[in-house]
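A note on notation is needed here, since sequence and fold are reported together in a single record. The reader may check this reading against the record printed directly beneath this paragraph.
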Amino acid sequence: MTTAHINALTFRKWPKLTAVVTVLGLTGLMSGFSLPSYAQEAAVCEVPRPIKLSAMPWPANQVLIGVESFLLQHGYGCEVEPVAVEANNSVEALVQEQVDVGSEIWLKTVEETWAKASAEGQVVRGAELFMSAEPKVIPEPLQAHVPTHTKEQAADDIPACISDPKCEYPKNAVFSAFSQNFYQQAPELSAFFANVRVAPELMQDIQARLDEGESVEEVVQWFLSQQQDVWRQWLSITAAQRVNQAL
């Protein structure tokens, strides 16, 4: 994928997720929310610009980005700029520094590209997010993002967050990653992303809520309010205190 191609895949491709980040970032999680001014002043972002975070075209990833955006803004004083990236181009986006952080790198999908970029020191592996299952039948929401292969090949190439318990699943490592420059320039933020882990059971719960008709915004709010024991482990003590004030 060329630089121009990745630039064309801006986050405008998914306006709903833009709304999630905007609403959570500017208006807070709940009505009547007000973050104390001293906490806002104390949170100074480690980088003097928005963090460019890869956004995948499935709702479960949009939930993860919504949660991370809220925590980064209120815990670390950072803004997030989600950039639309397809799963099979996620490593190229990091290498070309079109994104700072790859929110989900599906190893089976980009194994050769990842190995080359890693060996050349262009990328850094972050957290093991979860071990995912890939069905033999491609879910409808992902079919538009399947490369031009046979259906059998595509089923092995494309990650699926929507699972069918009747299928047999191979394991597929899914992790976050950084461009080398971002990793060196922002050690505190890199540590945050390196701590982000979501248990498979929790991912199933997120997907179930989405399947039942809850919006991405609603699931993000549920995660922030009901899964505090999970996301607090991702934050430094000081950042966690700031986020608690925001809630």
